Amino acid sequence: MNQFTRRDALRLGAFASLAPFLNLRAQNEGGKKLGIALLGLGDYSTKQLAPAFKNVTNARLVGIVTGSPDKIPVWQQQYNIPDGNVYNYENFDSIKDNKDIDVVYVVTPTGTHADFSIRAAQAGKHVICEKPMAPTVEDCTRMIDAAKKAGVTLQIGYRLHWDPFHLHLMEVIKNKKFGDWKSIETGNGYKVNNFTGHNAWRISKKLGVAGALYDVGVYAVQGALYTAQVNPISVTAKKSTERPEIFTEVPETYEWELEFPGGRKSVGFSSYGRSGNYVRAELEKGKIEISPSYGYSGQKGFTPDGPMNFTHVPQQSLQIQGQVEAILASKPSLVPGEMGRRDIAVINGIMEAADSGKVFKFGDFGY
Question: What DSSP designation does 177 have?
Fold first, then answer.
């Protein structure tokens, strides 16, 4: 399998973010490393984000914020976190006095993102917020405004913007190597039977907002938008539930059709009862596809030229490295809060269209 080379990275404008993968040390190696605190110590923090720091050269995991006291000793021992860098959700605001912590990474259920992100910004900390950004566009705006007022950055945890397969898709569409796109299909879903324990929040309207549409659907929505390279103008959608005894607060499945300028369409779905994991586009000179697409690894893709022969990368490590580099260099983020707000506007439009059965027309996304 071909390596993702230095030339590939430069061509895709991702050299700085991919430096660790290319075995090229970041320019600030030996210099300042930002201290990051993970807020929320669930499955994603435990299995993906925390281990990712071993490959990050410009940041360190130095703090934790959790509502589960039983997790604290394990994390302190494993990551050498001092007592003074451990917070709970009640005393979290006192993090403003901690000079060891520069960034708070919010990794809690969607319904809590706005509150914690705003509190982190008000404490003078840069914020990385997991996707999807927040329940509503208004929540997103409050988050953006809080970060601007505090003079800190707000970035969204869109790791696939550092993945070579997705970077290649974006570049092929952008430079129209195979002509312009004619139609797009995206989907992300899987059959879930157990919604107890750490999965319970996913079907809670308060925490999960709209079930699969927020949890996994954000990938499919994002996939359509960075494939289209232009914002949609309207959407039609429908929702369905085959297991009403489980899905009492949120639908099991959403399906939608986005319309873009010129009448081009993108169809998509998200579900906890139906499997699919892809992004594909019909181009003037063939087809481009990544399937499976949205996982932490395992991507397979092809273009009219043939297979995408890229080596899989440590997505979370490259994401954190790239986001911290943007902070240190005072340069625009690849994944700013405004991008997250646009995506929530699209998701909210899908929800409204599904509720009303009518076409929902988008306004100015501000991004």
Answer: B
CATH class of the 6-157 domain in this structure: alpha beta
Length of the chain: 367
| Per-residue pLDDT tens over the stretch 118-142 | 999 999 999 999 999 999 999 999 9
Q: How far apart are the first and last CA of the chain?
A: 37
CA angle 290, 295, 299 (to 5 degrees): 35
Q: How far is CA 116 from CA 105, 140, 276, 325, in A?
A: 10, 12, 32, 23
pLDDT of the residue at 32:
82
Query: Where exactly does CATH 3.30.360.10 map onto the chain?
Result: 161-304+337-361
The pair of three-digit structure tokens given for residue 240, joined into one six-digit string: 């369905």
Measured CA to CA, the distance from residue 114 to residue 217 in angstroms comes to: 19
DSSP 49: I
Within the chain, all domains assigned CATH 3.40.50.720 are found at 6-157
Is the pTM above the cut of 0.90? yes
Contact of 163 with 313, CB cutoff 8 Å: yes
Tell me the pLDDT tens digit for each residue of 222-259. 999 999 999 999 999 999 999 999 999 999 999 999 99
- CATH superfamily assigned to domain 161-304+337-361: Dihydrodipicolinate Reductase; domain 2 (3.30.360.10)
Helices in the chain by DSSP H: which ranges? 6-11, 43-44, 50-52, 72-79, 113-122, 137-150, 164-175, 205-208, 212-215, 217-228, 315-329, 337-356
Give me the percent of the chain exceeding a pLDDT of 70.
Answer: 92
Q: How far is CA 286 from CA 125, 217, 291, in A?
A: 46, 26, 16
* Cα of 323 vs its chain's centroid, Å: 12
CB 352 within 8 A of CB 256: no
Q: In angstroms, rounded to a whole number, what is the distance separating the alpha carbons of residues 361 and 118?
A: 29
Find the helix or strand (DSSP H, E) in which 234 lies.
strand 234-240
Check: CB of residue 212 under 8 Å from CB of residue 252: yes
